[in-house]
Amino acid sequence: MDKIIIFDTTLRDGEQSPGASLNVYEKVEIAKQLERLNVDIIEAGFPISSPEQFEAVQRISDSVKIVVAALSRAKEIDIKTAYEAIKNAEKKRIHTFSSTSDFHILGKFGDEKYGRSLDEKRKTVLKMSYDAVAYAKTFCNDIEFSAEDAGRTDIVYLSEIIETAIDAGATTVNIPDTTGYTMPSEFGDMIAELKRRVKNISKAIISVHCHNDLGLAVANSISAIQNGARQVECTINGIGERAGNASLEEIVMALSVRKDLFNFKTNIVAKEIYNTSRIVSGFTGIIIQPNKAIVGENAFAHESGIHQDGMLKNRNTYEIMTPESVGAIKTKIVLGRHSGRHGLKARLLELGYNLTEEDVDKAYRRFIEIADKKKEVYDEDLRTLMGDEFFKSDGLYHIEYLQVNAGINLIPTATVRIKMKDEIIQESATGDGPIDAILNAIDRALNIKLKVEDYHVRSVTAGREAMGEVTIRIRNENNSYTGKGVSTDIIEASAKAYIQAINYYKNKIS
Ligand code: KIV
Ligand code: ZN
Questions:
Q1: In the chain, at which end, N or C, are there fewer CB atoms within 10 A of the end residue's CB?
Q2: Average pLDDT value over all residues in the chain
Q3: Residues of the chain whose pLDDT is less than 50?
Q4: Is the C-beta atom of 172 inside 6 A of ligand 1?
């Protein structure tokens, strides 16, 4: 069986999803979980883009043993910075890229630097790509070159640039369908054509990186594999720019469930898929649609009577893989006030959270608060607690006190007291509902006005005592920030979520 290399870009392309807010600690936790999932390569970030990105890539490089890749444009300063960030990693890769389609070359590259005609510009890009790979090669041996928007690039020029990158020392050549434009048969043919045209292609691994604008990212990736690609770039839950990237879990399970059809294997530990999916969703704040293949809440739910009857007789009737095979096991384990610190630590470990003793203490205090309110604490409660606020409590502002009056024939009014270092600010405001009143009171206290783009409440588990999880996305000019709050009281959860989003925003601008 041919091995398919799984290159996970959740922490780079995935993190480019609108509103995905990950701090360094969370990125390191996700990277460790990706290692447990046994991906081959983690693309940890784009170090030149910000000091936080640099630090995250550096910390991930110190924390995992698998290959860590860092992204760079085809510029010396980017490449050097990428290398600086990954230099302590046991195994490292520099990933550099140039745009290759006419849309990009004509649309992004100015005449002065790149030449006036398309032909001149293409030549400049060709040389830049060669130089970038050759320069990267002076730092490490494992170099990936990507031809951005390859999906819409003329095949003759694409072949030329790929051949040039391999000549310069690229060990992996990536063919991204950056805009999610191609059809599976077309993309597969493109890979086959490159194999025919590029003379030195056997010296490099062919990789693909498909976006999901037409919902075809997974189909395109599989078609590429059938035509010779041996690395796929993908993300957990399919998150990423715009409509996202190819979903790791879908590609891996398609290859595994249909091994009668494909002669390919991956090294993925499928039982870790569900935990990884939930950890990524919890930390990024990106909710998984219920009908999402493999990891959605309904992926293994059977609703109609006919289906349920079939399932009772034989699971093969309506299930092509078991929930157990991807770790989506609905456990009956319930923790409560008396479960103790040790019980909590052990259960969190099984859910993929390997905490320091200090963090176990912190989690335990929060767990007791929740157990006091709702008696039975389920796995989903724990995941929500870990994902939503546990690692994010180091923000500038904290809510000390909250009072809300609302009801029929009452003007909703909220009073908040917010702590900021040694300062306490208190304000009241009205609104057209209790949540609006809280948000107005917080805005007034902090003297800000941010657009609320999205507001969601969901019940974490079933039942009257269930915890409510609130997700709020706010926007300031070009950036959006997502905050989450969790409590048995959704009014409190809303205030926490809003403050968390503001903490992210302040963190970015301070
Ligand atoms: O979509 C894309 O083309 C990319 C490249 C940087 C690989 O993300
Ligand atoms: Zn991409």
A1: C
A2: 93
A3: 510
A4: no
